[in-house]
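User: Hi! I have a protein structure encoded as tokens and I'd like to know what sequence might fold into it. I'm fairly new to this, so please keep things simple.
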């Protein structure tokens, strides 16, 4: 590897195009680091949310940027509008946060900070209640908070998407 500073010339979310473009750069004698490529394969279902960034030595950045523009201009289909994909990705991330991390994180991701704080407080109180007291309803409260977070954050993001159209 060279000791040059590397700069980012562009990115993609398509792993196959990323690998082909990296090979194209290397065929032109330009060293390329595809930052995020390995993480995508290691994260399984969450991998597609990771962007692949192309980093090249500073002194080769201009040539690499020209190749990047040509390559992705040719491979871009006229009907590919990524705004719908980004909107669905945001809804998917909110769902993952709501289910995996709970504590109102779906609302936090959706931008409802105060709702997040309320759901966090209720869920923590229910968990502490379950730990120190024999309370049959604590589990139901936690489940209710998770469901409220899941459905509420999904609806909030959907409304945001409709407003941005």
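Assistant: Happy to help. Inverse folding works backwards from shape to sequence: for each of the 165 positions I chose a residue that suits the local structure. Here it is:
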């Amino acid at each position: 590897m060279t000791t040059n500073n590397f700069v980012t010339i562009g990115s993609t979310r398509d792993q196959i195009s990323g690998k082909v473009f990296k090979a194209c750069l290397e065929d032109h004698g330009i060293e390329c680091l595809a930052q995020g490529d390995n993480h995508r394969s290691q994260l399984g279902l969450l991998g597609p949310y990771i962007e692949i960034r192309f980093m090249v030595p500073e002194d080769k950045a201009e040539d690499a940027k020209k190749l990047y523009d040509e390559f992705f201009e040719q491979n871009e289909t006229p009907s590919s509008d990524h705004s719908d994909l980004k909107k669905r990705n945001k809804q998917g991330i909110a769902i993952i946060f709501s289910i995996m991390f709970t504590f109102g994180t779906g609302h936090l991701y959706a931008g409802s900070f105060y709702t997040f704080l309320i759901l966090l407080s209720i869920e923590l109180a229910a968990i502490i209640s379950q730990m120190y007291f024999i309370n049959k309803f604590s589990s139901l409260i936690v489940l209710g908070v998770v469901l409220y977070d899941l459905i509420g954050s999904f609806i909030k993001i959907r409304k945001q998407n409709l407003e941005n159209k």
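A useful reference point when you look it over: The CA atoms of residues 97 and 150 lie 8 Å apart. Feel free to ask if any position seems puzzling.
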